[in-house]
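Full entry
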Amino acid sequence: MSGIVPQLRRSRKERLCRQLRQCRKAKERTRYLIILNLLNGRSVADIILTLQVGRSTVYDVAKRFRERGEAGLIDRREENGNRKLDEVYLARLYELVKGSAQDYGWRRPTWTRELLVETMAWETGVRIHVSTMSTALKMISARQGRPRPTVGCPWSKRVKNRRLCELRRLVESLPDDEVAVYEDEVDIHLNPKIGLDWMVCGQQKEVLTPGKNVKQYLAGAIDSRTGELIWVEGDKKNTLLFINLLWALVQHYRAAKTIHVILDNYCIHSTRQVEVSLATTEGQRIQLHFLPPYCPNHHRIERLWRDLHSSVTRNHRCATMPELMAEVRWWLKKRNQLKPLSA
């Protein structure tokens, strides 16, 4: 089958080998490999199997080589003129995708490839095909995902940053006889949270739900030094649950002079019952430090609760709440045994 390409002198073969070693484009390398294999007497079937290309590709490359020589192996798209997906276009597309379609006059809140094509045509004067937009999105590493709902902090940026800096300094300069923990509550639902999972093509997994939902609650505190979690359980997310956690902290850190509890502004953290509890002899060892409102990204325990949902409650198959809570306790105890060093 080597007859589909002309025989070359040894010097020209060596030149093709040198060009192959210098080639950085994958498709161009494949063309060089096809020609060199044909020149070395390998059959088309062997080339297809080795290079994982189609039969038509082998014959097309051979035809180009017969007609134009080595120049036929070069990517002919270089003759198309200036590339549309240049750095300027991709940088503008990156800024576009970060925002909402409504920011650019569309009534639809989410982007589609068609809307991106039209908007980029207005913004840059360059119009591309919808399939080319897919390539452009891949080039800027764009992906489709679920946005995270957030609530804006009502504090000014200056006041918010000042409070966060104070809490950061508190944790970083903590004396040896004092402890700082991040406290929060989490809901455990018997009806499983639905989340992403791997599935084979053509199949959608099903998660059997008990129907009537039941809830349990955890109040937890994560040590800022060691990452250890101390938690209590309850049937209701109320002040009693929070106070039970505070007493669990007092018992756990018997040698600590002061226990600094960093927490959010949930209403159960600042009731009259909490004030009375903190006024006792043991309660005076506890100091509460409130984060700015609606700042979950600065609350270190939030990551732990996300891991708990990912590892236990998401898509779970437990039929009863005791069964689910047993799984939750096992995961939390297992996590503490690993002794994470970063909270």
